[in-house]
């Protein structure tokens, strides 16, 4: 068996595991522990869990639309605290824990790119991170490994993650279940638009100084 075949088998196994974890994540929306599971998922996803919390957030919000913002708040707090844990992993346990996590999830190649972003502008890199296709855990672990200021990281994380989750909550609360297909299909475009607003905000603030 050559290297290419081994890589393909590894990717197939990873995809199968990802699907099972996805289904397992969704099933919590149909239990009395949905809110607790959402917090734990958001916390874990920021440092090592592969399934984004948006999956459970949307399932819970669609089931009770009037609680959308409550679920978004729970998700935001869990993600921000989990980001702090990811920062700790990168800061003190990168070689022993951080590298194995990123390698197992197939994300180690993205680490160098994220590190370059931090060297350019740490705050904007974190603020935009929550809306990029790159899993957030890469940014949290890299933030600790690059020793960026903890408060800069936490404030930017709060803006980024809260913005992402509350956008979802607002769409669901306003439009209800009929917005489901739109979110699933166009959420990346919505995210990019929000990033553009963040960047524009930075420029406006800079011009006003």
Topology diagram in text:
Layout: H1 3-27, H2 34-45, H3 54-63, H4 68-92, H5 94-104, H6 108-120, H7 122-129, H8 136-145, H9 150-175, H10 180-208
Helix pairs in contact: 2-4, 3-4, 3-9, 4-5, 4-8, 4-9, 6-7, 6-8, 7-8, 7-9, 9-10
Relevant terms:
single chain; 10 helices; mainly alpha; DedA_domain; globular; membrane; 209 residues; disordered C terminus; 81% helix
Describe this structure in words.
- One of its GO terms (cellular component) is plasma membrane.
- Keywords: Membrane, Transmembrane, Transmembrane helix.
- InterPro entries: DedA_domain, VTT_dom.
- Residues 51-171 form the VTT domain.
- There is one protein chain.
- The chain has 209 residues and is an all-alpha fold.
- It is built from ten helices and no strands.
- The longest helix is centred in the last third of the chain and has 29 residues, at 180-208.
- The protein starts with a helix and ends with a helix.
The major β-sheet equals:
none
Q: What's the count of strands?
A: 0
What is the count of DSSP helices, taking H or I runs of 4+ residues?
Answer: 10
Q: Tell me the domain tally.
A: 1
- Shape by Cα distribution: globular
What sequence of helices (H) and strands (E) makes up the elements? HHHHHHHHHH
Regions with pLDDT < 50 over 5+ consecutive residues?
1-15, 204-209
What's the overall average pLDDT, rounded?
78
Give the structural class: mainly alpha
Distance between the termini: 62 Å
């Amino acid at each position: 068996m050559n290297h290419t075949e081994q890589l393909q088998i590894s990717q197939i196994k990873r995809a199968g595991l990802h699907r099972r974890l996805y289904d397992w994540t969704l099933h919590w929306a149909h239990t009395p522990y949905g809110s607790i599971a959402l917090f734990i998922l958001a916390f874990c996803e920021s440092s090592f869990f592969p399934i984004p919390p948006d999956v459970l957030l949307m399932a819970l919000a669609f089931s009770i639309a009037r609680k959308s913002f409550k679920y978004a708040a729970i998700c935001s707090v869990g993600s921000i605290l989990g980001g702090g844990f990811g920062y700790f992993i990168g800061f003190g346990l990168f070689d022993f824990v951080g590298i194995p996590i990123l390698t197992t999830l197939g994300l180690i190649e993205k680490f160098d790119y994220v590190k370059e972003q931090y060297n350019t502008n740490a705050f904007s890199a974190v603020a935009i991170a929550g809306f990029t296709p790159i899993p957030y855990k890469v940014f949290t672990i890299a933030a600790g490994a690059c020793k960026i200021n903890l408060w800069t990281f936490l404030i930017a994380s709060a803006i980024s993650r809260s913005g992402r989750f509350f956008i979802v909550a607002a769409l669901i609360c306003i439009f209800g279940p009929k917005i489901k297909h739109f979110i699933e299909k166009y959420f990346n475009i919505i995210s990019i638009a929000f990033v553009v607003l963040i960047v524009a905000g930075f420029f406006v603030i800079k011009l006003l100084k």
